[in-house]
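$ fold --in a.seq
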Amino acid sequence: MAGLPPTERLHPRSRLLDTLPPRGALRLLHEGDLAAARAVGRALPALARLAEAAARALEGGGRLLYAGAGTSGRLAAADAAECPPTFGVPRSRVVALVAGGAAALRRSVEGAEDDAPAGRAAVRRARVGAADLVVGVSASGTTPYVLAALDEARRRGAAVALLTCNPAARPRGAARAVLATGPELVAGSTRMAAGAATKMALALLSTGAMLRLGRVRAGRMIDVAPASAKLRRRAVRTVAELGRVGERRARAALARWGWSVRAALEELDR
């Protein structure tokens, strides 16, 4: 047990989990969720440094790339997918490299996480270079695909970092953000506390970077792509509130600028 990463160890309160009534079991599991949030809170200084590094990479013409497998890879892919519609960044600028490829986003691809050569190959295919930041996402901190991807990215001159739930994981040349969630209440099921913490941390990292890049103003998304009726209504409200005009004038300004919230606000600010 001592040599196992924390995510593989048995939680001291889990031995009776399967004997509890449903409400009691869920209450105990939810305590794990709350502990995950506290672990993210303890990691905020490291996450802030990663957000700054991501902003520098994006500002300098580089990219933010995630590398992950299994649950970690799917969470990374979800965060990367949300950045373009939320913050108006091109899809090529925030990218997820996932063990097992696109198929692994829909179902578990067993064994893909152990494929270190695939991790290196994914980094080469992505043409990672010195302008990029590559963040490995691995709850255990031992995933061969992720560690190989980081090693290859570092070899190619990129900045590298590891987001992990294992305080003992220390990849060579990589910054770290450690989410010390400890053992899972269902031993090894990192889709639970580790997954919850990872989801929060990724959202903080990417949102922090976009804040640094000026893509949020007064709590509003000003580079959102208004591709649906709901988002167009939101764009009108944003321009009306931040531009201090009525919704009719806000809509007219948006129409003149192809529904660019930023451009409409710049017109109204003049």
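$ fold --in b.seq
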Amino acid sequence: MTDDASVSNFVQWVLSEAGKIDILVNNAGVSLVGPVENTSTSEAHTVFDANVFGPLRMIRAALPSMRAARSGLIINISSVLGFLPAPFMGIYASSKHALEGLSESLDHEIREFNVRVVLVEPTFTNTKLDVNAAQTAAPLGAYAAQAEATIKAVQAQIKTAPSAVTVAEKVLAAINGPYKMRQPAGGQATLLSRLRRFMPAKAVDSSLRKTFGFGKRPAS
């Protein structure tokens, strides 16, 4: 996903074997945990290259076939952090915000060709991506105590989080069911989506800070 030529060659091979592409699922991605201030440009670029530019490469390569056939579905795996950002996950959250904006714009552009875009938005999922998320290389410094409290809160949620099967089921539902652009997946994803839409901003802010352990510092 991070190499233009590799993506183009792969899509051309699929077309030579299958003749057309009906569905594209952009699922690959990387995560990053750490303060925004401590994040290097290189670290941020790595996240955006996988989470935003990767799907863009795949879309550019696959879309001409879909347009020609006047049929197709592009499913981008986003995250609840794409509409509800979390502390110490700013770069990952911003990459998912970018993916959501790209998806909405693209859906308007290609709808007349009978091609649609779906956003699947999982909450925390018990996968290696969440369990083994990379951390920024720079020392946490002044953010250490709060970052550790937040990471502990997130790890507690991951232990009881749904498996990737829940997300796969949502992808199948998006393929086989009635069209709906946003598809919250697993755990409290649907609830979080509704809270973001209907709760006052101050209440959402307070709830997030409580959820991610602000004010709860680890014992020294």
